[in-house]
Task: structure prediction
Amino acid sequence: MSKFNIKRAAVLGAGVMGAQIAAHLANAGIPVLLYDLTAKEGDPSGVALKALAGLKKLEPAPLASPASLAYITPVNYDQHLEQLSGCDLIVEAIAERLDWKNDLYQRVAPHIGPQAILASNTSGLPIASLAQALPDTLRPRFCGVHFFNPPRYMKLVELVAIPETRPDVLDNLESWLTSRMGKGVIRALDTPNFIANRVGVFSLLAAMHHTLRLGLGFDEVDALTGPLIGRPKSATYRTADVVGLDTLAHVINTLRDGASEDPWHAYFKAPDWLQGLIEQGALGQKSGRGVYRKVGREIQVLDLAQGDYRPAAGKVADEVVAILKQRDPAERLRALRTSSHPQAKFLWAVLRDTFHYSAFHLGGIAANARDLDLAMRWGFGWGHGPLETWQAAGWAETAEAIEADIARQETMGPAPLPAWAKEKDRQGVHTAAGSYSAREHRVEAPSHLPVYERQLFPERVLGGQNPAAAQPQETLWENDGVRLWRLPKVDAGVAILSFKSKMHTIGDEVLEGVLQAVAHAEQHSDALVLWHEAPFAVGANLKQVAEAAAAGEFERLEQTVVKFQQASLSLHYAQIPTVAAVQGMALGGGCEFTMHASARVFALESYVGLVEAGVGLIPAGGGSKAFAVRAAWLAAQTETPGEVFPYLQPAFRNIAMGQVSKSALQAIEAGFGVPTDTVVFHPDELLWTAIRRARAMAEVGHRVPARPGQVIVAGRSGIANFDMQLINMLEGGMISRHDYKVAHSAAVALCGGDVDTGAKVDEAWLLAVERREFMALLRTPETLARIRHTLETGKPLRN
Result:
């Protein structure tokens, strides 16, 4: 039996959601047909064509690279339905109208191939009702696949079956969505709004209810319900604006219409103020006005008491901040519960009601507590789900407090806590063995699908299984900056090098650690993987640099730069293959280490760049040298091997402007990797893939790269060409004098220094040039001011 794979896909509906699902399929290299209605004039597929044009403008970008757009073909229902027969997956993503969806299903069903899967992206309509429009032969291959918006970035996909859906279809689709699309898949029950929207929308409604009850401002609530409690910056009302107030009202109405038996049903309606904004056309971010609006540079918020907008200035009271900073979750929740401050009362009420609602509905909407909690993390960006938050705060004590509030009729819902939640010996819902299922009245282990074996350290819920326990680790060598270790059960011959510094900054102890760890691995291991959780590395330890510069220790700093270059070269010229496993930010020195490894495995969401210009410096850990060597190699493949300047220009723009790739695909296109590098979509598969890549390289026989002998450089002519561009920008007021100085130094390093154009130099020469230019900049007061400003504010200084 052949391995399940999606070789070609189709998306029905080119609206915002459908187009973005098509974009993410294209990111994964899957050819996709994007369908919509036939245009009334012009190109018959003009509706889908317009949607593709819109993808280029959306932020955050749905496309990981503009080149991914080539995988999407715009089509229409009248001319191209027969092409559906060649698709392995068809995702329906039209408007949330049951009658429209049913009509479309009847129209496309005859054209769907005998092995293809049909899935609906509905956010809450009953999957069983949608299936009624399908022939019996198609229902076993039909299910709900609910992507969250935006599909590229949001991890959650809810997979919803009907009774006829074949188990192998669900298993195959879950595995494919996890590994190929990078998603966290939760199997939801076919209930109104499924899991995440059911609990998430209730939590929003609870926040709205208690906002009015306690007389708080919308901006005040957003200050309370954002990062302070482990939620996204958009918090409550900004989230509503981003989602769209009309969309939010629609989801609320879906819940009201589909969950009439819910004890909280009376609250399932858009508040009057929300409905009023919708009637005015104030729909949130997409219309320029909603709960918030921007007037000039000022952000204003709707004030219900005044009936108008006022400057947004939401602030959390000091005593409430002090409560939220308490490390002990039990003490924190207890303090919120007993405080008399309205803000504390608000937080306890919203948390309590969400706990209550989640526990009451757990058995009806989710297979187990883990699924519910992860759905909230992945779909709404919560740091922790409601049930794990409850457990961390002390299950029994919190349950008693909820019951007491129910008895006093202080909760939103009159329903009692379910019996399982009040069991005397219950300590929570998550254990080392698995998570509690209210449906089955037992603890259920996480999925054992083979795809999850690739996730060596998967995300865990509080109190749940510790992935590290399943992966015994053995430390091979370590110092204050790095740890060299291995996973004997995975591959005892592949060493793993991880940085221990904050944000994985690269200081003296890390540089020394890299040199010694590579030497150790060369002697005792078959291959080396450079990996740790995101960020990969945010660059040099600027604090160490600033302190040494302030003390006038420039000779020591230059020796540090020499050691940085040696560390990069040790990765490049190691006697064993070295693989950089990159996730998140790989900036400055982190980018240079990435470039010098034998190979790279990138997570899709890797943001890579040489950003030294932001602090008034240039790459000097081998990054400038690497681009000079690369330009010479590219020129050598042409009929004019001496003309290297054209191949330096993209690198110069990247370095001078401190540009950062917006994805792994763009990082490779920018030259921070090579086309043969691997891109994985699920970050939890990064280490497993890197180990496999390293093992494969070791098995075929690692060839240590030959040191570049004579490198042709652009020399004085190349520097002059770059200087002409810079002088025009300086005179036009586009850059400052120090910007010019920094960019000129970058040009000198890339062009090989003050030598004749076409001169041949060696690697040591190029390293010396970049080091000299780096140190000259480091001695300037402007660069030192930039470094200090960045350390103090986290922002670049333009001086």
In short: The CA atoms of residues 752 and 765 lie 8 Å apart. The chain has a mean pLDDT of 96. DSSP finds 31 helices and 23 strands in the chain. The first helix runs from residue 16 to 27.
